[in-house]
């Protein structure tokens, strides 16, 4: 059916702010079916205590928001009396930063989303931080997706983790070569039209097409992410052919607006979704977005000139977006001029949900237990301090851990730890505040991701093939010349099977004789292939450690089951008690 005529500017503003007057809408409303769409995005595991400030419009007073228990209460109140309410997420539900979910591999977040009654979610880029097998574990409770089986914790009800009660979808996350979707691309929800009749509402989902270039969710092989507009339009046509007239796109890609604007403003919107909106078929009646953590509530013209909601509800449970669709009771078509969208703040002036408070307290207790779990012992301090040659005991150990972990599920000849990835030492003294029953004991909290590594939620460990001359180039790149001619030495840590010397009397770029580089005791061969392992962000330019480019063209890249933090933790555990590695991997010519 053709779309309804384009709205006037005045009516557009009224719809945007949810201020349609009953006198103007009473007659159309009588012949329509209301559908309430409630959405959150980029929760990132913030189901516990968390506060932030937001404002509804530019210049309005700030409001204090946040916390999963308050979010649950607001959702209950918004759903009250609604016969057709659908709650969903635009992605990045887990791979969160709070320790109470991160240290349990985000299973607590899934428990929370089950508790609040999430109906479905789009796959965000962070849902893929540990690959598709881990996502399937989160969906189905498979207890698979980590090489160490550190999964399926007991939840706050006393049951073992059983997976999500809702589904994850993505239309543009496809398998290489076949382009077949990895998970279901779209689905249909049926709403009550009265008199025993049901009307369909279709949802098409996409994941940001840049997922493979994100350092945490880097996916070098097996899966690719197509540009979003094509799959959305293709599946929208399929839905129309199936008789679905109301269609919503849930897009884990974002946009924003002018700085200082409020969460219900639409001030000079810009970003990928603004361009996507111009490409997405007018058959799509609303676009719900995420990924940018932006707070914005727009009506933008579709390619046919008809306004449709394009919204984003911030992150970490600060906001809830509500879109009210009115379906023609006879055809199921969305009556566009009756569409209303508003972002609601998750304010803390309502009673927190007691069930969620209990759940949060449970995971806080488990967090304390896990934090104080001994995982290894060390016989001496492992520090980031460099010796005269540029070596550090903790960096050397980290490179050894990378090689050990990379070889657990693939081939690797050597590994490298780049500068500045470590934020603290591993000491022989008892951790402050911990039971001091034995010096040298290392607790889980001392090695957890975000504690030792300067990379919050953990960067993937990736393998790639390079020529020997590229390894020589990588070693040479430790000496970096600035525009003013000064030279900075930024030492790399290679795994213990690598040895080389360097001559500071020679020019930058020629300080290492390739013939003096040894790998497993054998000379480096310039044209031979070597499989090197390191953190994913050093294989591509976007997030690489500055000054190191030699791995950008590494071939046949694939990802280990371990992240960087896992590698150091499990390596220390496997080798306990651990001493500092012997120095001598790199040495100046005397």
TrEMBL record:
<feature type="domain" description="5'-Nucleotidase C-terminal">
    <location>
        <begin position="375"/>
        <end position="544"/>
    </location>
</feature>
<protein>
    <submittedName>
        <fullName>Bifunctional metallophosphatase/5'-nucleotidase</fullName>
    </submittedName>
</protein>
<dbReference type="InterPro" id="IPR029052">
    <property type="entry name" value="Metallo-depent_PP-like"/>
</dbReference>
<dbReference type="InterPro" id="IPR004843">
    <property type="entry name" value="Calcineurin-like_PHP"/>
</dbReference>
<feature type="domain" description="Calcineurin-like phosphoesterase">
    <location>
        <begin position="38"/>
        <end position="294"/>
    </location>
</feature>
<keyword id="KW-0547">Nucleotide-binding</keyword>
<dbReference type="InterPro" id="IPR008334">
    <property type="entry name" value="5'-Nucleotdase_C"/>
</dbReference>
<dbReference type="Pfam" id="PF00149">
    <property type="entry name" value="Metallophos"/>
</dbReference>
<keyword id="KW-0732">Signal</keyword>
<dbReference type="Pfam" id="PF02872">
    <property type="entry name" value="5_nucleotid_C"/>
</dbReference>
<feature type="signal peptide">
    <location>
        <begin position="1"/>
        <end position="26"/>
    </location>
</feature>
<comment type="similarity">
    <text>Belongs to the 5'-nucleotidase family.</text>
</comment>
<keyword id="KW-0378">Hydrolase</keyword>
<dbReference type="InterPro" id="IPR006179">
    <property type="entry name" value="5_nucleotidase/apyrase"/>
</dbReference>
<dbReference type="InterPro" id="IPR036907">
    <property type="entry name" value="5'-Nucleotdase_C_sf"/>
</dbReference>
């Amino acid at each position: 059916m053709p779309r309804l005529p384009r709205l006037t500017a005045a009516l557009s503003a009224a719809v945007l702010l949810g201020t349609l007057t009953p006198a103007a809408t009473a007659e159309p409303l009588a012949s329509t079916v209301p559908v309430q769409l409630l959405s959150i995005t980029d929760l990132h595991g913030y189901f516990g205590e968390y506060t932030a400030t937001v404002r509804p419009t530019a210049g309005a007073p700030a409001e204090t928001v946040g916390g999963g228990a308050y979010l649950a209460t607001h959702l209950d109140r918004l759903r009250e009396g609604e016969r057709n309410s659908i709650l969903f997420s635009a992605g990045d539900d887990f791979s969160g930063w709070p320790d109470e979910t991160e240290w349990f591999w985000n299973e607590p977040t899934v428990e929370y989303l089950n508790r609040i009654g999430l109906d479905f979610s789009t796959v965000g880029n962070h849902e893929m931080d540990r690959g598709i097998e881990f996502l399937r574990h989160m969906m189905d409770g498979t207890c698979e997706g980590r090489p160490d089986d550190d999964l399926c914790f007991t939840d706050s009800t006393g049951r073992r983790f059983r997976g999500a009660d809702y589904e994850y979808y993505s239309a543009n996350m496809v398998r290489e070569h076949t382009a077949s979707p990895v998970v279901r691309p779209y689905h249909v929800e049926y709403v009550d039209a009265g008199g025993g009749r049901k009307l369909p509402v279709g949802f098409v989902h996409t994941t940001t097409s840049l997922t493979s270039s994100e350092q945490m969710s880097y996916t070098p092989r097996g899966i690719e992410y197509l540009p979003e507009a094509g799959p959305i339009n293709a599946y929208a046509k399929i839905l129309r052919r199936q008789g679905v007239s109301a269609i919503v796109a849930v897009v884990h890609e974002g946009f924003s607006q002018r700085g200082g604007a409020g969460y219900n403003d639409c001030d000079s919107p810009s970003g990928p979704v603004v361009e996507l909106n111009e490409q997405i078929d007018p058959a799509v009646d609303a676009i719900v977005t995420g990924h940018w953590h932006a707070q914005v509530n727009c009506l933008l013209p579709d390619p046919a000139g008809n306004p449709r909601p394009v919204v984003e509800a911030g992150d970490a449970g600060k906001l809830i977006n509500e879109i009210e669709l009115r379906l023609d009771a006879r055809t199921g078509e969305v009556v566009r001029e009756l569409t209303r969208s508003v972002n609601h703040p998750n304010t803390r002036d309502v009673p927190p949900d007691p069930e969620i408070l209990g759940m949060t307290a449970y995971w806080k207790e488990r967090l304390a237990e896990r934090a104080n779990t001994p995982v290894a012992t060390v016989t001496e301090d492992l520090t980031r301090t460099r010796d005269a040659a540029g070596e550090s005991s903790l960096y050397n150990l980290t490179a050894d851990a990378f090689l050990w972990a990379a070889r657990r599920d693939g081939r690797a000849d050597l590994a490298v730890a780049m500068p500045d990835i470590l934020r603290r030492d591993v000491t022989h003294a008892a951790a402050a505040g911990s039971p001091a029953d034995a010096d040298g004991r290392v607790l889980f909290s001392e090695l957890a991701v975000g504690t030792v590594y300067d990379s919050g939620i953990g960067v993937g460990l990736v393998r790639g093939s390079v020529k020997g001359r590229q390894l020589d180039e990588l070693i040479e790149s430790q000496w970096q010349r600035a525009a003013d001619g000064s030279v900075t030495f930024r030492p790399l840590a290679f795994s213990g099977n690598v040895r080389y010397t360097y001559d500071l009397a020679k020019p930058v770029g020629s300080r290492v004789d390739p013939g003096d580089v040894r790998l497993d005791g054998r000379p480096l061969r310039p044209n031979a292939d070597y499989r090197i392992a390191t953190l994913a962000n050093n294989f591509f330019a976007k997030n690489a450690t500055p000054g190191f480019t030699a791995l950008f063209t590494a071939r046949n890249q694939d990802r280990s089951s371990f992240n960087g933090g896992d590698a150091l933790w499990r390596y220390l555990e496997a080798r306990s008690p651990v001493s500092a590695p012997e120095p001598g991997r790199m040495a100046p010519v005397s």
